[in-house]
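Bumping with the actual sequence this time:
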Amino acid sequence: MEYGQSLWSLFQKQKFTRRNFVKTCIALTGAMGLSPAVLPEVIARAQERPLVPVIWMHGLECTGCSESFIRSKAPLASDVILKMISLEYDDTLSAASGIDLEHHREKIIKDFGGKYLLIAEGGVPLDHEGYTCTVGGSPYVDALKETARSAAAVLEFGSCAAWGGIQAAKPNPTKVVAVSDVITDKPIVKVPGCPPIPEVMTGVVMHYILFGQLPPLDSAGRPKQFFGNRIHDTCYRRPFFDSGMFVERLDDAGSKAGWCLYKMGCRGPMTYNSCGNMRWWQGLSYPIQAGSPCIGCSSKGFWDNDPFFERLPNVATANTISNADQVGLVAAGATIAGIAAHAGANMLRQNRDQAGKQNQGSAGTNTTIGGDQ
């Protein structure tokens, strides 16, 4: 890929039509969580802005975030990697390896200082001088600091990079920390999840590429368009929660009927993510839809919030704090009250109708008598 070319110039070079370019921009607008009204600006920026070099580094992790990323469908990860960014370094996806790849990373840092995007996947171990995770024979923490020093911005992909991850679970023998605990002087976006939703990752990357700035962030440093709601707020099982209808065992009738999993330990009421509305594999499914309670994998320290299948003690509902039993009692009380009100209304209606008939009968008798007279 030639440096300095825009997405539109790349489409022209590959002889794609203007129609294909606009359709791609439409998909990108949706993937970035933006309003359709922003589409003209997305098209304009895709025509002008140069594609961004990317260095993607791996610390202590399982590569699950990369596995999720390459399964993005809108846009395709292959389109992002081959057409929308210039992925210069990734020890998982790069064709080169070893010392040659490390030399190339150093070249990108030198040639494109202040222009490239650093994606960090995995936690950063600090104990044993960082040698519990090495890159090219050097501690990962040193390579990370060196690369971040000249980066335009840093994206933390996955809960390992954002919060430390499972390897930071108690007692955290290698003293793993989040990337933001090591890199403190750069703009950083946290994209937590174990793994994150692929379209969330591609959407954040494309937002920076097209607009040259990070997306709006919440107080925790996460993109608002993807982490602005609790899973509980977008869950299709929410009506069952509001009705006090809960799964009591994972094999009971309520489970088979799709009732709320709150009593099974679901962390949806405290977890911010897009699982309920975006889901995985083009919206096919997500854990709650598959019958498993959410374990809050995008939340800080979720790995120590065990046991996962014990319910939370409290959950916020309608500007108050309540638990599942109280929600059920309220729902049941409302139902009983509704039935009583309905029965009372029916009784009043029947009495009224009966009185009306009697009045009509009396009126009819009086008229007849009057006529006879």
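The tokens above came from a reply further down the thread. Confidence is low (pLDDT under 50) at residues 317-322, 331-343, 363-373.
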